Amino acid sequence: MAAVNRDSTPDEHSHPTGSPSIAALSPAGCPVRSTNPPPALPLHAGDAAMFIADVTLPDCTHVDAGQTMAKVWRLKNAGTVPWKGYSLRRLDLTQQADQCQTISDVPIKDTKPGEMVDIRTDITTPRKPGLCYVRFKMVDASGTVVFPGSRPINFQIIVDAP
Fold first, then answer.
1. In this structure, is residue 8 part of a structural domain?
2. Which pLDDT tens digit goes with each residue over 62-87?
3. For residues 156 and 58, what is the distance between their CA atoms, to the nearest angstrom?
4. Residue 10 in domain
5. Sheet of strand 116-124, all strands in order from the earlier edge strand to the far edge
6. What is the CATH classification number for the domain harbouring 129?
7. β pairing state of 49-54 and 61-64
């Protein structure tokens, strides 16, 4: 997302696209630090988003295996374009049983420029302990990524043994 205020420290296990190698992920490496993708303008001129906070489940929160809980991010529409029909689309759509489960597209309430919005999705943790690292990109009503040159929004939680 444009103007997202998150640490952009490169991770030693990152791919050139900015996504870390899934094989390199472990609870010991939390939080995962990814690099920014190649620079690109937002899809819609004047569009911008700012990450405000992890309202629930901050990075590296310990959670129980086999549970369902809510993840909430707070973003600000920092541009001049209204967000109408926007959503967060999960990047790793082929979900495996040992990964955290979420819906593929998390709807975003219509948000006017200057407004903040809380975006909520339910997460079901796997029965196996480990690190859940799930990434999303914001898309518009047509399903096109609106901030191709910005890092994905993500959640990183550590699943403890039952």
1. no
2. 999 999 999 999 999 999 999 999 99
3. 8
4. no
5. 49-54, 68-77, 116-124
6. 2.60.40.10
7. unpaired
At residue 23, what are phi and psi to the nearest 5 degrees?
A: -65, -25
Bridge partners of 133, per DSSP, are 156
- Tally of structural domains, the chain: 1
Computed over its alpha carbons, how large is the radius of gyration of the chain? 15
Lowest-confidence segment of 31-45, 54-68, 76-90, 122-136 by average pLDDT? 31-45
Chain centre to alpha carbon of residue 34: 12
> Which residues are CB-contacts of 2 (< 8 A; sequence separation ≥ 6)?
42, 47, 48, 49, 78, 79, 147, 149, 150
Q: Name the token pair of 157.
A: 């939680």
In the structure encoding, which two tokens stand for residue 96, read together?
Answer: 């495996």
| Single-letter residue type at 130 | G
Environment class of residue 33 by beta-carbon count within 10 Å: exposed (0-12), middle (13-18) or buried (19+)?
middle
Q: Which two tokens stand for residue 70?
A: 């809510």
Residue 11 and residue 57 in contact, taking contact as beta carbons nearer than 8 Å: no
Is 115 domain-assigned? yes
If phi > 0 it is left, if psi is from -120 to 50 it is alpha, else beta; for residue 3 that is left
Q: Which range of residues forms the domain containing residue 99? A: 22-160
Q: Confirm whether 13 is domain-assigned.
A: no
